[in-house]
Every structure is written in C-alpha cells, then in structure tokens.
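Q: Joint fold for the lines below.
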Amino acid sequence: MLHLYLPVAGESVNILLVFGMGGLVGVLSGIFGVGGGFLMTPLLIMLGIPPTVAAASDSNQIVGASTSGTLAHYKMGNVDFKMGLLLLIGGVLGSALGVQLIKVLRQMGNADFLITVTYVLMLGFVGSYMFIESLQSMRQKKGVVKEVSQKESRYSRLVRRLPWQMEFEKSGVRLSVLMPLGLGVFVGVLAAIMGVGGGFIMVPVMVYLLRMPMHVVVGTSLFQILFTCIGVTIMQASTNHTVDFLLAVLLLLGSTLGAQVGAKVSKKLKGEQLKILLASLVLLVMVKMFLDLVLPPHLLLTPGGGH
Amino acid sequence: MRARINFLAIAMVLALWWPVLPAAAHQGFKVKLRPNLVNIGIFFGGAKVTLKGSVPARSQVAVVLEGPPQDNHFKRKRHVMGLLWMNQGEVLFRHVPSVYLVYTSQGVSPALARKLGFGYRAVRHRADIQPKEGEEDFLFSQFVKLKEEHGLYHWQQGGVRLGKPSQGRRPFEVKLDISSRMPPGEYAVQVLAVDQNHILASDLEHLKVQETGLLAQLANLSQNHGLLYGILSVLVAIGAGLLMDLIFGTKKSLH
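A: Joint structure:
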C-alpha cells in the first residue's frame, strides 16, 4: 500500500483511500453546491486524523474544490455575484458572533452537548423539509393540484414590505438587501457553532427563503463557500497550526476532479431531483450522528481537551 | 531544546530502572539495534527495526521501547440523562510515556513483568490520573486501549524469538513495529535478561525517529510561520482549482 505521511497530523494515510474520499465529496460538492465539510470531516476522523486537523485541512481543500466548482458554474451562468457577496458579508458577521457565543457556551460547561444537539436538529429539520417539499413539487408536476398555503403568501408579503429592495437579475428575484444580509448572519452563527462551512444550511436558505432557482443556488453557494474557507484556512494555519497541507493537497486532487464531474452531473439533473438527493444525504448524516449519540461508544475517552 | 528533553527523558527512564538492575548489569550482554535511525519521508508508512543479541543460556528476554513522559488530555464520554453519549468533562493522564512497546520471550508473563517492575502495571503505577474519582484503573485501561489502537502501546508475549543455547549463551531476535504515529524524537530501548525472580542483565539502546527533507521543512513552516504557511496553502489550493478547470472545464456558455 502506498502511504503518504502527514507532517501536521503526525501519521500516514493510504493515498488511494484519501484520494477516493476527496473525489466522492468533490462530486457531491459540484452537484449540490455544498462544501462537503459535513461529510469529509467525519470521514477523516474515522481514518484517525485528529478532529482539529481534519476540519482545518478540509477547509483548505474546499478552497480548491470550490474554485474549480465556482468556475464551472460561472461558465454555465449560474453564479449570482451580487447575492453571493451580500450573503458573504452577513456570513462573516454571523461567524464572528457565533464564535463569541461558543465562548460563552464553553464557559457555561455544556457546549459540546448543545453543539451536537443543534447539529442533529438542524440536519433533521433541513433534510426533512427539503425532502417533503421536493416530493410534493415532483407530484405537482405530475398533475396534482397545487395548493398555495396561507403561510407562504404571508411570508411573501412581509418580504415585499422590507426596505432597500434590489433587483437580482441572475436569480430573477427582487428582494430587500436586508434579506441576504440577515440570512447570511443567521447561517454564519450556526456554522460557527457547529464548526462547519454552512453550505448545507445555506443552500436550503437560498432555495426556500430567498426563492432563488436551484441551479443559481449551487453556483452562488460555491462562490460564497470559497471565500469563507479561504478565511478559515488562513486563520487556522496562523493561530492553531492545524492545517495539514499534504492532506489537503491529496484531498484536493480528488475533489477538484470530482467537482468538475459534479457540475456536469448537476446540469443533467432537474431542480427537484437535486433537492431530494441533497435532502437524502443530509438525513443520512443526521441518522449517523444520532446513532453515535445513542449507541454505547467503543471507548469512553476521545483525544482533545486541555483548553 | 528537543535534544535536551530527549536527554532528560532517557535519564528519567534510567533512573526509574536503576533500583531493579543488578550491579553487573551490562556484563556479557550483547545487543544490536538495526537500524537505530528511522527517517520519516513523504511516503513513510511505518517501519520495522530489528534487535538482535545474546543472553546467558537459561534466561528469558524482555525488550521495552519507551518514549519520553508526557501529559495527555482526553474528553470523557458519559451517558447523559440515560439516553445520550456525550463528551462531559476531561481526564488528564500525567507522567505517561508517549510510546510504550513491550516484546518478551514466551517465558515472560505479564505477572512476572509486574514483579520485575515493567509492563502496563508499572506505567499505571507511575501515572497520575486526574480527576481522582475512584475510576482511575478503568480510565487507565481505556487509555491503554486507545494507545494500542494507535500503535503507540503494545504488549507481545512471545514477540522475542529465542535461539538454541550454545556455549552458555542464547541468541535472540525481535522485530519492533515503528508506527507512523510515533512522534519524531529519541526513544530508549531497554533489553532485559530475566529469570523467574530477577533481572540478570540489561542493556540500553537508543532509537532516533526524525522527519527529513521536504517533510521537515513543511512541519517547520507550519509551526513557526503559520500565516505564511496558511497563505501558501490557500494559493496552492486556488491554483489546483484553476488547473483542474483548465484541464477539464467547459467553455463559457452564452446565457
């Protein structure tokens, strides 16, 4: 077996295995516009990489995968830069807020419990909602009468009343600037609490709350993730020294290739199909995390702590 | 600084062993560790080193490879509300060796090792486990399991192969597994010739594990020039993304 020694993680990994993992997550990233952190980081931890190194090195590889993915989607006309930029500004503010919140939670002592429960609940809520909604719209297209709920129209009225309305040509929507900014803050806070890029929350937010078409959502989300992960990588490398460059490069080789394949697959799938697939994936991760919570662990000690 | 720590570690190991060693410990004891330097390069996936030697004909052999003592922090999982397994609280293991590999010939049981002052029980005896809530022994067994899974702790009875005695001497050979997780540094390899009650003779060898070439430079850059390392990592990632797009990407469509 061909091994690669990771100087920051302090151990060696099987080259083909990590390359394959990068490729698989890259395909998913290209299809759904998610960074894939919520999949890759647990996979790396399962390989024995320390959690902090896994998360930081994954951010580094997402920079490469989302560069490739954003470009591929940009060429297909699927990136709304105006919307992406506003979400990004909100996201940065939200992350800063989330980091402070985590500090307070840690001082209170139950941070880990709250983080994990938030994670499972968010994944469960987002996954179930997307799954049910996509299933309904697929049925509607087959001839079932469309029902417009009272709740939806109330939401639309509220959105129309907000000040500083702006035209987002690429997404084909007219919205208040406050919407992407505010939702960016919301996702930023959650992402910082859960320690993830937030793609799997951002995508449903864009689809259901910003009413953007699914294909533009994917490209715009990747654009936003690119900048988030550049910031995270530099911050982690300079303050915690947890970025393993060799691990990131190996994952990158797989994921950038995968992202290109993913972007092409994404073009062939319909919006509802994309949504239902992403929903299934999110639910799968949620079930895995839930089982980890309720089944007795193999060992009662996990490396870390000492903060 | 690291060399000083390693020297201190070896001195500590020697000091711990000193009371159990007989006065003529090194007499008539021949051992050779080959190689005694393990270089970690980019494609390093672990290594094996061979220790060969000869001992008095009627003795058994034990080999103990030990890393410098360190403090290990862990999170402790507990069953919360009788429903969820969560990390709650921390456990600190102080004065435990970073690496502890024990290989013995068939005749050295864990009980004998305990009597002669080496093995996991000896490590437990030296360790200071906090907090002290009455479950230190259980936590230590969990600690050993975790270290064994990482290849950093190991116990193998029968790992030392003894040859046929001739002219009052007996040859032996053991292959030590050097896990890729073993941190770079200097390790003490203690070789003991024992009978059922005593340590008859002993010798100390040293094994050095070090990162080399590009790997050593990367480790240095990451630890001492974090910001530059981070910026370079991002630039390489963006470059790889652009390159992949250039190779596999589609041309811009007109919409």
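Q: Anything notable?
A: Confidence is low (pLDDT under 50) at residues 17-26 of chain B. The longest strand of chain B covers residues 84-97.
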